[in-house]
Amino acid sequence: MDLFEYQGKELLRRFEVPVPEGRVAATSEEAAEAARFLGEKVVVKAQVQVGGRGHQGGVRLVTSAEEAGKAAEDIFEIDFYDQEGFALKQKTEEGELTDAEAALWEQKKLQAQRSRRVLVERAGDLKHEYYCSFLVDRTTRSYLAILSSEGGMDIEKVNEETPELIAKVQIDPLLGMSDFHARELVFGGNIDEEARKETLSILPKLYRAFVELDASQIEINPLVMTADGKVMALDAKVILDDSAAYRHAFFDELKSAHEIPEQEKRAKAAGLNLIKLDGDIGIIGNGAGLVMSTLDVVTDAGGAPANFLDVGGGANAEILSNSLQIIMENPEVKSVFINIFGGITRCDLVAEGIIHALGRLDVKVPIVVRLDGTNAEQGRKMLADAPHPMLRTAETMLEAAKVAVDLAHGAVQ
Ligand code: GDP
Ligand code: MN
């Protein structure tokens, strides 16, 4: 779970990591009120899960409550993109996109995020911006701590151009972080002398937060030294490991602040588990293994899955019609592939479900069905006896995948 900045900072505060004083606001009035409370000179920050909010107008330094309200109002109207999306947006303003870029840009527009809250924080005068992060390094089975005097900007770029200004230290999870690790980071990372002592005291706190919260990453960019010599976390990107949710009662509460896409919400309400991908072929299957192979077969046939849904063992009429409805709601879906292997699930009941769904739904894209296993022949016959202009059947999984891909690409009518 990728946390909002304000959530990450709330957690860091519990571990005594210094963060600026701030308040969360959901309206421009609340933002103005927060600024009044904090002393007028504040930063108003968009709360969205994309990097580089600063470049997209999502971080505003203001000097009055009125301006803070106005800044929040502006921020609520901004569409935020991930880095790739923002680069494409800038390109659209400068000139022509290639076909591939234009297609990607259409997708990025669908994924644009709006900020539903802003974080209003007391602004400080910054003297230096550093970079600090802790992450799980799977290849070495250890933690990796990174510290650099060159923060605030793209750390990848620093890594390429001036790698000598970045300190990387491996920490054995069984031994934990020691003072010498912290010193290696502070000296290797080229931290200013006046900020060293405080940074040395902050690093173990960040490490403790990282371990005790079951985080997979904590990135502070920038960690700053203010004009009066204080060191604090000005930004916080905290990712918690969902597999550890059962150990932390607060995970659920943090999650409730995240907007679940409407489609996934409705799928969940219908007891279905929908996973969204980036392609254009909707996939329904029964059983996790079969669904995964279906994704592979579709990819091999030159297609790209748009989403997938596992109907599990209970592939009855109700479930199938809900599934089809939800899968087809995605405007990206150009064809649907229903792949069922009958075991306990009987293919005749699945066929009945599909026929029922087709009668109920306004079907605008072609659907390819492959039935195999228990009562498959009976099921196929039922489908053949109830012809529908949008329905195709196929004998094998490979054949069905190929037809679904061709239909999505408009190759067959
Ligand atoms: P990001 O662009 O999404 O990473 O947002 P950040 O929280 O990292 O803020 C971007 C930049 O805004 C920082 O690198 C700072 O330069 C600037 N900034 C943020 N807060 C303050 C502040 O309190 N005072 C000053 N002077 N600058 C700030
Ligand atoms: Mn940042």
Keywords:
alpha+beta, six-stranded mixed beta sheet, about 40% helix, binds guanosine-5'-diphosphate, binds manganese (II) ion
Structural commentary:
The protein has 413 residues and is of the alpha+beta class. The longest helix is centred in the middle third of the chain and has 20 residues, at 193-212. Strands 5, 6, 7, 8, 9 and 10 form a 6-stranded antiparallel sheet that branches. Strand 5 (126-137) and strand 6 (142-148) form a beta hairpin. It is elongated, with a radius of gyration of 26 Å. It is built from 15 helices and 16 strands. The chain is 41% helix and 23% strand. Manganese (II) ion is lined by residues 221, 235.
Lay out the secondary structure.
Elements: H1 5-14, E1 22-25, H2 28-38, E2 42-46, E3 59-62, H3 65-76, H4 83-94, H5 99-110, E4 118-122, E5 126-137, E6 142-148, H6 155-161, E7 166-171, H7 179-188, H8 193-212, E8 215-226, E9 231-233, E10 237-240, H9 250-256, H10 262-269, E11 274-276, E12 281-285, H11 288-300, E13 305-310, H12 317-329, E14 335-342, H13 347-360, E15 367-373, H14 376-385, E16 391-394, H15 397-408
Parallel strand pairs: 12-13, 12-14, 14-15, 15-16
Antiparallel strand pairs: 1-4, 2-3, 2-4, 5-6, 5-8, 6-7, 8-9, 8-10, 11-13
Helix pairs in contact: 2-3, 4-5, 7-8, 12-13, 13-14
Bound molecules: guanosine-5'-diphosphate (GDP) and manganese (II) ion (MN).
